[in-house]
Write a structure and sequence with these properties.
The chain is α+β, with helices and mostly antiparallel strands. Helix content is 25%, strand content 25%. It has a single domain, classed as GTP cyclohydrolase I, C-terminal domain/NADPH-dependent 7-cyano-7-deazaguanine reductase, N-terminal domain (GTP Cyclohydrolase I, domain 2, 2-Layer Sandwich), CATH 3.30.1130. The protein is built from four helices and six strands, in the order H-E-E-E-E-H-H-E-E-H. The longest helix has 16 residues. The mean pLDDT is 89. Belongs to the GTP cyclohydrolase I family. QueF type 1 subfamily. Pathway: tRNA modification; tRNA-queuosine biosynthesis.
Length: 162
Amino acid sequence: MAHNREEEVHLLGNTNVEYKMDYDPSILESFENRHPHRNYFVKFNCPEFTSLCPKTGQPDFATIYISYIPEKNMVESKSLKLYLFSFRNHGDFHEDCMNTILDDLVALMDPRYIEVWGKFTPRGGISIDPYVNYGKTGTKWEDFAEKRLLQHDLYPENIDHR
């Protein structure tokens, strides 16, 4: 039975939202997938992600790509925005941030499949682009995740703007 969307999400449309500056997964909200009979991708492009280097305290900037195939629940986009903003003062390595985001979204939604790809701007002449994914254990999506991981960068982009 479909729920009333207003009962499912609380941040969307709320003008008194607090922007937390420290990592907080409790911000994330989900709502019911009204099309569970169909496989489809939902993709978020988040070009303003920032976190802090845990050693130097300097800011790291990235575009984060999150793509998932929902099962029963979906992440609400405003809560995702606020959640990603909560990394602003979080000190962690790029790879750890991407794995944390994946783990938190899997815990929230239990999707069929999800991938998180961070494309960080260079510091010290090197950019780091960690890619992590997950397919629901015991399903075809587990095999899909393995294949996608092995092939995720077969056609690397031409990078001339970072």
